[in-house]
Amino acid sequence: PQGSEEAKAFVNAFLKRSMPKMKDEAIQDVLTRKAVVLQHYSKKKKKQKRKKPKGFTAKQRREMRLFEIEPEQQRYAIFLPLHELWKQYIRDLCHGLKPDAQPHMVQAKLLKADLHGAIVTVTKSKCPSYVGITGIILQEFKHVFKIITKEDKLKVVPKLNNVFSLEIDGFVSYIYGSKFQVRASERSAKKFKLKGTIDL
Fold first, then answer.
1. What residues contact 143, with CB distance under 8 A and at least 6 apart?
2. Is the residue at 56 inside a domain?
3. Range of the domain at 168
4. In a domain, 19, yes or no
5. Along the 200 residues of the chain, how does pLDDT read in single tens digits?
6. pTM of this prediction?
7. d(Cα 178, Cα 198) in Å, to the nearest integer?
8. Is residue 66 domain-resident?
9. In-domain check, residue 116
10. Residue 29 to residues 5, 12, 18, 66, 138: CA-CA distances in angstroms?
């Protein structure tokens, strides 16, 4: 066919450029077999590791004062709507808190419930100054509750060595703080063991 010589010359020139280490005889041998393998080394792309977004450290949170409640916000009346929302949340969680509800079932649900907005009272304590403190839980940490009282005072009450009472719709539950030293976010997955007697 017309142009076959030019095509042959082009292929020969191309193969010489592509495989400079091969001799002419070897190239011709490859052509007669009609099998040409061009050597090409592709660069391996490095997989970029996805960087996990890092949260703030405890020190950074303290410096930014993320969990501090401003003095002008420390008023009991401001958080009463939060308490009303909490009561509705507990009623839904306990299916209405009906009179025939089993106390141990309600207690088990309260142990894992979110307590932000609950009104609690310190009923027993190894430190007498804590006894009688009543207010709405604004913040719960692993070891302390931050409670706003009716006198608009923000109290930091440790869980250790304190017993808290919590009342809703006539149902009173007691929380032994010494056995309750868990972050609020982790408490829902924690299994609480029933014990006959619990010390402060």
1. 158, 159, 160, 181
2. no
3. 74-189
4. no
5. 456 777 778 877 887 787 777 777 777 776 666 555 555 556 667 777 777 667 778 788 778 877 788 888 889 999 999 999 999 998 888 877 777 777 778 788 888 889 999 999 999 999 999 999 999 999 998 899 999 999 999 999 999 999 999 988 888 888 888 888 888 878 777 776 656 555 65
6. 0.65
7. 9
8. no
9. yes
10. 18, 12, 16, 77, 86
